[in-house]
Amino acid sequence: MAEGTPNTSTSSDTTISGGHLVAKALKAEGVDVIYTLCGGHIIDIYDGCADEGIDVIDVRHEQVAAHAADGYARITGKPGCAVVTAGPGTTDAVTGIANAYRAESPMLVIGGQGALSQHKMGSLQDLPHVDMISPISKFAATVPHTERVADLVSMAFREALNGAPGPSFLEIPRDILDASVPLDKARIPEKGRYRASTRQAGDPADIERLADLIVRSERPSILLGNQVWTTRATDTSVELVRALNIPAYMNGAGRGTLPPGDPHHFQLSRRYAFTNSDLIIIVGTPFDFRMGYGKRLSPDATVVQIDLNYATVGKNRDIDLGLVGDADAILSAVLQATSGYGDTGAQGRKTWLEELRTKEQEALDKRAHLLTSDSTPIHPYRLVNEINEFLTEDSIYVGDGGDIVTFSGQVVQPKSPGHWMDPGPLGTLGVGIPFVMAAKQALPHKEVVALFGDGAFSLTGWDFETLVRFDLPFVGIVGNNSSMNQIRYGQIAKYGADRGEIGNTLGDVNYAEFARMLGGHGEEVRDPADIAPALRRARESGKPSLINVWIDPEVYAPGTMNQTMYK
């Protein structure tokens, strides 16, 4: 035991245990669910959660717990929380922590640890968790005393929301967690009093400068990225692009900011726009591989970058103006600043929008025959087009896969903000089932539709049973080509067909039978005409569902063929 810490795992009116302090701190942050896989190091947290009314969703793999906490944060705007045991429990969660780190998703992962009294003695599942996780988190620490448990939890949440959000990690040694201390000795930060507002609006002079750049621009374009949803800047973004007549492109969680059919919603003409714009505004998206490290932007354009993270602004590409802060606060201020101009130039941009709309239509016409293809095996474009037609205003779309999700990114358009979920820039496969879990648990009135590659589903698919157990229905589709096709294409191109299928070809698994075995709804589809009826039956079943759609393994997404992810 830590020195001076009573050896008891119970709480009373005058004492409180470490696990109950964790639960109180989670409650103060607004956390109403934890995702977990049990272990002897962490069970006092469950006892505390029961007292505080926090739901405990127990899963079959710690990676799922971490991804679900990430997904919960994206859907709700509140930090998510995963609780895992020591050693392999924590290392299993590392992939989920890393994914949240690259995706800027705020969450807290609490890991167990051997007792402090057995430090360096080789206790069960003892590993240097903090050293391992520090490089992929905003904050990582060990709780040194039971009195500090709630204090460290609040500190971890504060750091998770500092600047661009991300994951925090706490390990709590078993004797620290199980022990009880006098209530008057424990530091329990009060709700709403341990962190400040993150709505920073940038330099006022830069706000005025950006307003002037927009007003003087003839061919502006704006990219609305992840942070537009993170900062809940949807309404402001829509008001700005409509008032100033600016064509808008969306990526990541920014998809759905503008609904399909909106005159300022553009998707397929982005390369043309970024080549021909005189002003390009990048909101909440780094110049990483998805942006060609900034090289896809016209060298002649004035480039403005807005981001929560100072380190992101101007990274990989020079910019003309950078603003650091909350996207909603900054865009609100810019919109207000442009209202002082007699002529904002909005009317003069009508021709520019018409030019881009023509390019959009040309791209649509080029692939129209593939969207309605009757070929078998089923063309991936036909599958993703059927899914897009199936979505409603309330459908949250989850994409988990390589080549098939690359296809969907060109076709599937969420109809509301916050209704698109994908792994993010780490490209982590296996997020689908945990993202479904988080979305359906947080927003049970919403429909969740998930598209999986067969390789991606197999990574975390056993937690389909968790969805059945907790009655979390969703419509799931497996685009099944019995291959890790994104990698297969690259191998064939590089080494030839005779060596192109080494290590990437999977068995022919009918996932519909898997779903039925676990108590869900399952169907198999080989004819494209059967896709839509199967989707409707899955919706009507009221169960977790999987529709196994056999797609053509010899057809690849344009992004896969360009190998853009490796350039």
TrEMBL record:
Domain Thiamine pyrophosphate enzyme N-terminal TPP-binding: 17-126
Entry GO terms, CC: acetolactate synthase complex
Enzyme class: transferase
Record EC number: 2.2.1.6
Gene3D superfamilies: 3.40.50.970, TPP-binding domain
A Pfam family per the record: TPP_enzyme_C
Keyword Transcription regulation: no
Named cofactor requirement(s): thiamine diphosphate; Mg(2+)
GO molecular function, one term: acetolactate synthase activity
Key words, A-Z: Metal-binding, Thiamine pyrophosphate, Transferase
Domain (Thiamine pyrophosphate enzyme central): residue spans on this chain: 207-333
Transmembrane segments: none
Gene Ontology annotations of biological process type: isoleucine biosynthetic process; L-valine biosynthetic process
Thiamine pyrophosphate enzyme TPP-binding domain span: 400-549
The family this protein is said to belong to: Belongs to the TPP enzyme family.
PANTHER family registered for this protein in UniProt: 2-HYDROXYACYL-COA LYASE 2, THIAMINE PYROPHOSPHATE ENZYMES
Protein name: Acetolactate synthase-1/2/3 large subunit
Source organism (scientific name): Nocardiopsis aegyptia
